[in-house]
Amino acid sequence: MLIDARQVDARSVVLADVCIVGAGAAGISMALELAEKGIEVALLEGGGVESDPVTQSLYGGENVGLAHEPPEESRCRYLGGSTNCWGGWCRPMDDGDFDVRPWVPNSGWPMTKADLTPYYRRAHPWVELSDIDYEIGHWAAKIARGKAKLLPVDGSGLCTIIDQFSPPTRFGAVYRSRLSHAPKLKLFLFANVTEILTNLSATQATGVRVATLNGNEFRVFAKAVALAAGGIENPRLLLASNAIAEAGLGNANDLVGRYYMDHPRIHSTRVAIADAEPYRALYDATLPRLLRGSGKNRLSFAAHLAPGADMQRQMRLPNSRTYLVARSGNDVSKTYFALKALRRAIRGRKQFGYPMSRVWRDLTRQAPVLLAHAPRTAIIMGEALLSPFLRRRNFYLETVIEPVPNPQSRVSLLDERDRLGVPKVQLDWRLTSLDKDHYFALNAIIVAALTTSGLVSPFDVLCQPDAWPSEIIGCWHHMGTTRMHRDPAQGVVDADCEVHGVRNLFIAGSSVFPTVGSDSPTLTLVALALRLSDRIATLFLSRDVATRS
């Protein structure tokens, strides 16, 4: 059942077995799994079924760290959450990503890859994928049929890694019918959670307070509460729920909001590839899916280079992914992001009352980019219509490194509040000197391996040590801020994703990741959500949830 929270009687009390905050990939998959097992679920989504700028503005905050989109511009506050702006890249994390690695401080999960493998299998249908094998040999025949080739890095310690493409699955659209018809599920739209409710000692969650932008307020009481609102909103809600626990819920050890991670993305070296077409089909991240492969054998997957497990141990490196970016693709993206920034400023003037000085500031910042790249972009777009591979020889190597978990990188609260009275967030994304060392060591290895093959000719090193970290951008992957650890002194949630010290309060999503590998977090966060739904279902079906109250 879909319910408009703006129309709920303010005097009413909504009762449920489980209240889930956030209707993105984690929240929707959890809600349907639980409801279809006969458990009463209230699923709360802050937006509607489509995006609107006023609701989106509730994500507003400021960035004081590395260059990063403002918080309101890198998430989607409507049904389906950030799957609405997801590119569809899917891959499970690697075995070593779960390990304690002495060369990666604060690493190690309280589970192994094998523990999560059954849930990875279950996660694939949720993102509309049927193939669960990611070994390179499994894809060899399809690569050959698509007339693609692997980069020649044998013997270098590097390996080719496969990612699959989800359509991408827009969870709100794909699962809306199931959400509407699930008999034990109530989905409240425009239902913004402003506070997590607890008992008088803040040792057990009892529900949430809900507010809407039209001034309506009501409460949802539940036997269990699960936050699935993303890597920025999850810690925001915990910190803002401080009526009893002054530092916020789960924050007795000052860990909520710390260890914020995004995947750092760096253009490293400009290279020339004489016969690029068969390699570009696999490794060019800018290439549209419909142009990957050959004829009817289009490729529904992509590839990147990564250090193998042995190289990571021997060279004391984290995980990473390196791929090609067509030089033209970078020019297009610069123009695209400049136009997007101007559109935001103009829309903000109309919708949010931004001062004209802000619009003018953004115009003066973006005009040089548009002037510098627009002619080239026009040529590229016309060229792409004629032939996607026409005269395409020059590329950037782009690398995404697995960041070191850093407690100084964090999400915290500002004194300024949003329209519903919730403190806004301050985002302080930081990297460490180890991240810098890891990146430059890795880039040297990759350039040497590709040069030795004779296929690739490097001719321009882009990211220099003295420019670090000005050349870095993120991937909109918000992770780590409610990290998982068995020890309450080192994590916010335990191995079952339950908040330390607060019974029946659970957290789903990438905010619980202790380390983040180098791939898109979506498949892993869905797998963890399915694991958590099993944990919560076990509590209810065994009636253990009552004894914990």
UniProtKB/TrEMBL annotation:
<dbReference type="InterPro" id="IPR000172">
    <property type="entry name" value="GMC_OxRdtase_N"/>
</dbReference>
<keyword id="KW-0274">FAD</keyword>
<dbReference type="GO" id="GO:0016614">
    <property type="term" value="F:oxidoreductase activity, acting on CH-OH group of donors"/>
</dbReference>
<feature type="domain" description="Glucose-methanol-choline oxidoreductase N-terminal">
    <location>
        <begin position="185"/>
        <end position="264"/>
    </location>
</feature>
<keyword id="KW-0560">Oxidoreductase</keyword>
<keyword id="KW-0285">Flavoprotein</keyword>
<dbReference type="GO" id="GO:0050660">
    <property type="term" value="F:flavin adenine dinucleotide binding"/>
</dbReference>
<dbReference type="InterPro" id="IPR006076">
    <property type="entry name" value="FAD-dep_OxRdtase"/>
</dbReference>
<feature type="domain" description="Glucose-methanol-choline oxidoreductase C-terminal">
    <location>
        <begin position="405"/>
        <end position="529"/>
    </location>
</feature>
<feature type="domain" description="FAD dependent oxidoreductase">
    <location>
        <begin position="17"/>
        <end position="47"/>
    </location>
</feature>
<dbReference type="Pfam" id="PF01266">
    <property type="entry name" value="DAO"/>
</dbReference>
<dbReference type="Pfam" id="PF00732">
    <property type="entry name" value="GMC_oxred_N"/>
</dbReference>
<dbReference type="Pfam" id="PF05199">
    <property type="entry name" value="GMC_oxred_C"/>
</dbReference>
<dbReference type="InterPro" id="IPR007867">
    <property type="entry name" value="GMC_OxRtase_C"/>
</dbReference>
<dbReference type="InterPro" id="IPR051473">
    <property type="entry name" value="P2Ox-like"/>
</dbReference>
<comment type="similarity">
    <text>Belongs to the GMC oxidoreductase family.</text>
</comment>
<protein>
    <submittedName>
        <fullName>FAD-dependent oxidoreductase</fullName>
    </submittedName>
</protein>
<dbReference type="InterPro" id="IPR036188">
    <property type="entry name" value="FAD/NAD-bd_sf"/>
</dbReference>
